[in-house]
Specification:
alpha/beta, Double Stranded RNA Binding Domain, five-stranded mixed beta sheet
Length: 197
């Protein structure tokens, strides 16, 4: 009986020490308790990225707001890009390795700081994998698993940016930057002033 109690005490102390030093399981995020409800919007309202974002927020006990007005912050995913390119070719002139790239252009909007333009950002995840031409079904299954992991990492990057913005205040563009962005917008150009994450 004493051995069982001492084992439980050691486990509890170890868990406390790991938690106290900031160690966390891979993929877990520490969201501030005062973050409030978050509104998430994308062009594809039933897409895999918005599903992953809402899953991560809910797993951290963050409420998902139905509208931007109901949320303290908004995550607005403006565009998603998914690319696959051949990295190497085997002796049989077939693709032997692919590089997968998943990107999302997004904005974190502090709904209390109305009128301040938010700096757009781009989250990007890149992975490569070997493609076995002799096992196309297995290679396709591996690619699906890798893409799911990439999507999870992309969502984590966006949420880490949300944490940063919530702790540092509104992430707004300086006045001269706003004027320059307005000129670009008036000319109909795009892609100006993005911040890579």
């Amino acid at each position: 009986m004493n051995k069982l109690i001492s084992t439980l005490v050691i486990i509890a102390l170890s868990a406390s020490l790991l938690n106290g030093c900031g160690w966390r399981l891979r993929g877990s995020l520490a969201l501030p308790a005062d973050l409030g409800a978050v509104h998430v919007s994308t062009r594809d309202t039933h897409g895999e990225l918005i599903t992953e974002l809402t899953r991560l927020l809910r797993s951290s006990d963050i409420d998902i707001a139905d509208s931007a007005a109901a949320g303290r912050y908004s995550i607005a995913v403006e565009q998603e890009r998914n690319q696959r390119r051949t990295v190497s070719v085997g002796s049989n002139a077939l693709a032997a390795e692919y590089e997968l790239t998943l990107e999302a252009d997004y904005r974190i909007v502090d709904n209390r700081a109305a009128g301040e333009p938010q700096v757009p950002a781009t989250a990007r995840v890149v992975r490569s994998f070997n493609f076995n031409v002799n096992d196309v079904t297995g290679a396709a299954a591996e690619e699906r698993v890798i893409r799911a992991e990439m999507r999870r990492e992309l969502a984590q990057k966006i949420i880490r940016r949300l944490i940063f913005v919530s702790q540092s205040g509104p992430e707004t563009a300086p006045a001269d930057k706003r004027a320059a962005d307005q000129q670009v917008k008036n000319r109909g150009e795009s892609g100006h002033g993005k911040t890579a994450v």
